[in-house]
Give the backbone structure.
Amino acid sequence: MRADNRLSRMLHVLIHMQQTSDPMTSEAIAEVLQTNPVVVRRTMAGLRDHGYVSSLKGHGGGWTLAQPLSRITLLDVYNALEQPAIFAVGWGEDHDNCLVERAVNQQLAQSLSDAQARLLKDFGKVTLQSILDSVKESSSAGIRLPSARR
């Protein structure tokens, strides 16, 4: 199963949007993300619907932040992206009458549910500003962060 990287990509874009005074066009964002501007517009529309970005039409238009990064959490962006699957682990359903398969599936479902709840709780504690602050701290300390994979 291919990993869903929309969350990390949109976090990346939103933080960069903070660092520019001009609106970012869908085309410019698409070029950075190496995707189609239509995909960018569709994804950004979800963020706009939740009030995290706004869009300006026409010459000089594009996407801008509608909220300060300190008011946007990882959980906010995750929810705006319609809660992409966090885990790709599944379970077998080949033997409906097998008690062992049912017990395995029940345990996997419970463990994954518990892990997702803990992760989402953590997402709610992390603001995009705190991520930007960590970049600034690393930069001032001379630490180079790994470059983004394309």
About this structure: The longest strand covers residues 53-56. Strands lie at 53-56, 62-65.
